[in-house]
Automatic annotation (TrEMBL):
Gene symbol of the encoding locus: gcvPB
Annotated function: The glycine cleavage system catalyzes the degradation of glycine. The P protein binds the alpha-amino group of glycine through its pyridoxal phosphate cofactor; CO(2) is released and the remaining methylamine moiety is then transferred to the lipoamide cofactor of the H protein.
Key words, A-Z: Oxidoreductase, Pyridoxal phosphate
Superkingdom of origin: Bacteria
Compositional bias ranges of the Basic and acidic residues kind: 79-92
UniProt-recorded name of the protein: glycine dehydrogenase (aminomethyl-transferring)
Upper lineage: Bacteria, Pseudomonadati, Pseudomonadota, Alphaproteobacteria, Hyphomicrobiales
Gene3D superfamilies xrefs: 6.20.440.10, Aspartate Aminotransferase, domain 1, Type I PLP-dependent aspartate aminotransferase-like (Major domain)
Residue ranges constituting the Aminotransferase class V domain according to the UniProt record: 210-328
Species for this entry: Microvirga arabica
Length: 548
């Protein structure tokens, strides 16, 4: 049955001895849900509410909302006459309403279940989860930057265009390249942009029909082969050898008149600088192909090495990694692509052109003297991220950016040195760049897996490291502390992992295989969640009907 508010009644029937008696349908049902949710997490101390101390269980809006409530009080208008010619909605819309304080609590509670770089060390390798300086946020919120509209006349946004021009020049200088396409909105989008520029260059040479193979090392991020395949290239893998490096002989062996490009990550996803990168670039160029560099790991070498000096033709830069703009749910990504002299003419529109007294946004390929391959985005890209990235660059200065890279590398090596006696390094105990890669050989015969270690880290209050990537290493654990962690923070992280490693080796399997014990949710059936996701809330069946 439906209750007064037109929503299904609580599924449980409550007896007089039930402490929930008299709570009202909705509260009782929520409390029942909370108990069920908590039952699996509260261990030997289940609580009545399901809350765990001050950590609140938070149901869905649909479960706590009511249809007769909204955050605003508006009187029904007098003499209201619909003007939609009978097309207006006849039924209630069915969205749950909450009062303002309830809404506030809902979202604040959810936010408290979140783990982010502002709560603790975030060791996700390959992601560069560094501190997002509040200064950058403040700059991005200056009304002159935050309130501009992409369709405003160019004469009214000269400052914004100047900022884009300056950011572009910094990126070109840091990489020693010729041109930059700012508009791509993430690393993967930047890969697409760079590879489309390569494709355009190949087609301009009349080799479009014959050069259709892209070499991609086994250790590459999945976005690399996906990008190449998406625009019609055939992907040919190149092995990463036992030392974690791509060898020039293995590249040469695969080179021919059919090869359009190589997509190489440097520093690579094993956390190592590719020592043969310059030779590989030469071999690629000698064969008439292009060198796309995945620049996601640029944080390790800013101010130390310039990709242009290594023979790179195109490279994306994840502003949300290297230049500290927020990631994922915290903000949109931004993946500018720098291009070599050979590819610069093919840079997509729009781009900023600095005139004598003003800046211009070149919007149409026909307005460009060059040969833009097209456009990647409707407008010019992520303005807010440009402001944050430039703010990061200006506040660090060239010496500060160089030091950030040095500190990021130092921190990763500090973790490597602190764990090398207990955890196994697949490529020997040699220095790493900004991230350190362990495999799972140290877990042999313990009955504990990489996944179990990750879950046990959650109990210890840490976001897990990147796991099972790169694929070239068995049970990979890729740890990137970034430069913004203190020595004390690294020491605690190392001590925590040492404690876990010793527990695994001493046979305390339960600490791992049952973990996480303390998280709001225990182990999820991730396969089922991915294969058959429940994306729509359906009201619970009204089972109390028969009883009344
Ligand atoms: C993060 C990353 C990418 C993709 O970047 P997004 O901004 O997530 O699209 C590509 N390659 C490597 C090595 C990365 O770490």
């Amino acid at each position: 049955m439906l209750n007064r508010q037109g929503r299904p009644s609580a599924p449980q029937a409550h007896g007089v001895s039930d402490p929930a008696a008299g709570m009202g349908d909705q509260a009782a049902r929520l409390q029942g849900d909370a108990n069920r949710a908590a039952g699996s997490t509260a261990g030997s101390h289940p609580t009545f509410t399901g809350n765990k101390a001050l950590a609140q269980i938070e149901p869905l809006l649909f479960e706590i909302g009511r249809y007769d409530t909204t955050g605003v009080d508006l009187d029904e208008p007098e003499d209201f006459k619909p003007r939609l010619g009978g097309l207006e909605r006849k039924e209630p819309i069915g969205l749950p309403g909450l009062s303002e304080p309830e809404t506030m609590r809902h979202y604040v509670r959810l936010s408290q279940q979140n783990y982010g770089i502002d709560t603790g060390l975030f060791p996700l390798g390959s992601c560069t989860m560094k501190h997002n300086a509040r200064l950058n946020e403040r700059m991005a919120r200056l009304p002159g930057f935050s309130d501009v509209h992409p369709l405003q006349p160019v004469s009214t946004v000269q400052g914004a265009l100047e900022l884009m021009d300056e950011l572009g020049r910094y990126l070109i200088t840091l990489t020693n390249m010729t041109a930059v396409a700012l508009s791509p909105k993430a690393g993967a989008h930047g890969e697409l942009c760079g590879m489309m520029a390569i494709k355009a260059a190949i087609e301009a040479k009349g080799e479009g029909a014959t050069r259709n193979v892209v070499l991609v090392p086994d250790s590459a991020h999945g976005t690399n082969p996906a990008t190449a395949a998406l625009i019609g290239f055939k992907v040919k893998p190149v092995p990463a050898r036992e030392d974690g490096w791509v060898h020039v002989e293995d590249v040469k062996e695969r080179l021919g008149p059919d090869v359009a490009a190589i997509m190489l990550t440097n520093p690579n996803t094993c956390g190592l600088f590719e020592p043969q990168v310059a030779e590989i670039a030469k071999a690629i160029h000698d064969a008439g192909a292009y060198f796309y560099c995945d620049g996601a790991n640029f944080n390790a070498i800013v101010g130390k090495a310039k990709p242009g000096d290594l023979g790179v033709d195109a490279m994306h830069i994840n502003l949300h990694k290297t230049f500290s703009t927020p990631h994922g749910g915290g903000g949109p990504g931004s993946g500018p692509v720098v291009l070599s002299e050979r590819l610069a003419p093919f840079a997509p529109v729009p781009f900023v052109r600095a005139g004598k007294d003003s800046f211009e946004l070149v919007e149409q390929a026909s307005d460009a003297a060059e040969k833009p391959f097209g456009r990647m985005t409707a407008f010019h890209g992520q303005m807010g991220m440009y402001v944050r990235a430039l703010s990061y660059m200006l506040s660090h200065g060239s010496d500060g950016m160089k030091q950030a890279s040095e500190d990021a590398v130092l921190n990763a090596n500090y973790i490597r040195a602190g764990l090398a006696d207990l955890m196994s390094l697949p490529f020997g105990n040699k220095p790493c760049m900004h991230e350190v890669l362990f495999d799972d050989a140290w877990l042999k015969d313990t009955g504990v897996t990489t996944l179990d270690v990750a879950k046990a880290m959650i109990d210890e209050g840490y976001h897990p490291m990147t796991m099972y990537f790169p694929l070239v290493v068995h049970g990979a654990m890729l740890i990137e502390p970034t430069e913004s962690e203190s020595k004390a923070s690294l020491d605690l992280f190392i001590a925590m992992l040492r404690d876990l490693a010793m527990a695994a080796k001493n046979g305390d399997k339960e600490r791992f295989t049952g973990a996480p014990y303390h998280a709001p949710r225990r182990r999820l059936d991730e396969t089922r969640a991915a294969r058959s996701p429940v994306l729509k809330w359906t009201p619970p069946a009204p089972v109390a009907e028969a009883a009344e």
